[in-house]
Amino acid sequence: MQTDRRAPVVMTVLRETGGGEAPPAEAGAPAGRARWPRLDRRRVLILALAAWAVVITGLVVLQGTRGEPEAAPVAPSPSPSASEGPLGVPEIYGAVLPSVVRITAGRSTGTGVLANADGTILTAHHVVDGAGTITVTYADGSEAGASVARADPAMDIAVLTPERLPETLVPATLGGAAGVGDPVVAIGNPLGLTASTTSGVVSGLERTLDRGNDPDMAGLIQFDAAVNPGSSGGPLINDRAEVVGIVVALANPTDADTFIGIGFAVPIGAALGAVEGDGQAPPL
What we know:
It is a single chain. This protein is of the alpha+beta class. It has a domain at 89-276: Thrombin, subunit H (Beta Barrel), CATH 2.40.10. The protein has four helices and 13 strands. It has helices at residues 38-67, 89-96, 125-128, 268-276; strands at 100-105, 108-114, 121-124, 134-137, 143-152, 157-162, 173-174, 183-188, 196-211, 214-223, 235-237, 242-250, 263-267. The protein has a six-stranded antiparallel barrel with strand order 1-2-3-6-5-4. A six-stranded antiparallel barrel has the order 8-9-10-13-12-11. The longest helix is centred in the first third of the chain and has 30 residues, at 38-67. It is elongated and about 115 Å long. Keywords: Hydrolase, Membrane, Protease, Transmembrane, Transmembrane helix. The chain crosses the membrane at residues 44-62. GO terms for molecular function: serine-type endopeptidase activity. This is S1-C subfamily serine protease.
């Protein structure tokens, strides 16, 4: 009887993480080497194909991304909006100052405001009353002679026509109502101090001013923004940068000609009505 001298088949046990034993190797496998079961090979093939599909998909997406230009980031941009107020004193001053002029009439100095795109200037009548020559100095420093086009001494309002206009003419915005307690700004040339501004509030409405031998003035705006000689004819402005009045007087019980906290302005509607006849703003 012959002895079978074939080497014994060595079985290699493959242990999974779960501790279970792998199935025996297939018949015919070389000694010392275990083969994956047919089921496991199929599973590995499926996993390999799935992984390759993921790689291919990633490459396609990446290539597509590289082929398209990157969208530029959209920066936020401010959207314009109407400044219906309230504005601060610096904004009001900056908006209206280009419309304010200095008036020199003989030995008198006062203020005026450009009220129309044709250069028409509104001021207080007493600033130019009886003057032989009138000179207006615009905000840019240029000067021009001027003449009185219309006047209403009863309302202390005059309209001037300048001989020349500034290189850039900026008429003021006229209109708007004034209410007690509303903030107001005055711009003028008090005591020769050019382009000065002060602020305060409307202190009262429908005030009457006793002018001695002249008829009283009624319907005035009382305010407490500081004004002094030289401020006459300047604009009284609300917090929307609208001219609501023309400064004409200050309370002067001591004859000192200095401000004691009470100023008066003709409402802009009355000022325009005094020189236009219908109370309407001149066309711009």
